[in-house]
Amino acid sequence: MKHSGKFIVLEGPDGSGKTTQIGRIEAYLREQGADFISTREPGGVLVAEKIRSVILDVDHAMSGLTECLLYAAARREHLLQKVIPALEQGKIVICDRYVMSSLSYQGYGRELGEAVLDINKRAINVDGTEYWPDLNIYLDVTPEVGLQRIHAKDAGREINRLDLEKEDFHRKVREGYLRLSREYQESFATIDASQNEAEVFADIKRVLERLLFEGPQQEFS
Ligand SMILES: Nc1ncnc2c1ncn2[C@@H]1O[C@H](COP(=O)(O)OP(=O)(O)OP(=O)(O)O)[C@@H](O)[C@H]1O
Ligand SMILES: [Mg+2]
């Protein structure tokens, strides 16, 4: 079904600054008087938050495919219960992670490849429409920078099962994101997230303005 909202997703490795920048985006959209919601994956609705705690618990070893299916299950519920209703009301939806996270973490990081795309296409298909974001804002940092940030003492965030993966996993995740940014370039804006918070936000704001206030645009990068 067609909707008049805008679906904007923040993507990037752990510690790239997604949650931090969503805070700034919220403040900016509020200032503009925009009608928006902000949400996160996995989670955002009760059943998906429960799936999130199953996935991220450091004691829950599981196969890569199980992990992929759980993320996809959480994604679908969140999409059905929260994202689509907001889009249909014409709202801007700001979401912390979506399909590109699965393609990079499970597809590239866990090396599950195409299976992840197949599963996700099914998960985001509602009544024959696949719900892809209008824009993926990809915050690009090296694993060294990202992991150093989240392991810093004052990061105020629990270390989860995926953070504890070896460096090689995080490297594959980033390579995955970089490939995806080329493959899906019409919906990708790549931002250098090694800059300071204000500089990163200035870049994000430019892309947001293009999407929200200047009409259709072919490319964001
Ligand atoms: N541009 C920046 N420069 C330096 N530190 C930053 C920057 N952006 C965020 N940080 C800090 O890095 C840490 C991780 O940031 P944040 O939680 O926003 O990342 P994230 O992408 O949401 O990570 P995750 O995927 O693990 O949720 C926080 O302590 C935050 O204050
Ligand atoms: Mg975060």
UniProtKB/TrEMBL annotation:
Reactions catalysed: dTMP + ATP = dTDP + ADP
Xref: InterPro entries: P-loop_NTPase, Thymidylate_kin-like_dom, Thymidylate_kinase
Sequence ranges assigned to domain Thymidylate kinase-like in this UniProt record: 10-204
Pfam families named in the record: Thymidylate_kin
Gene3D superfamilies reported for this sequence: P-loop containing nucleotide triphosphate hydrolases
Binding site for ATP: G12, P13, D14, G15, S16, G17, K18, T19
Enzyme nomenclature, EC number: 2.7.4.9
CDD domains reported in the protein's UniProt record: TMPK
Coiled-coil region: none
Keywords annotated in UniProt: ATP-binding, Kinase, Nucleotide biosynthesis, Nucleotide-binding, Transferase
Functional summary from the UniProt entry: Phosphorylation of dTMP to form dTDP in both de novo and salvage pathways of dTTP synthesis.
Record-stated family: Belongs to the thymidylate kinase family.
Protein name: Thymidylate kinase
Gene label: tmk
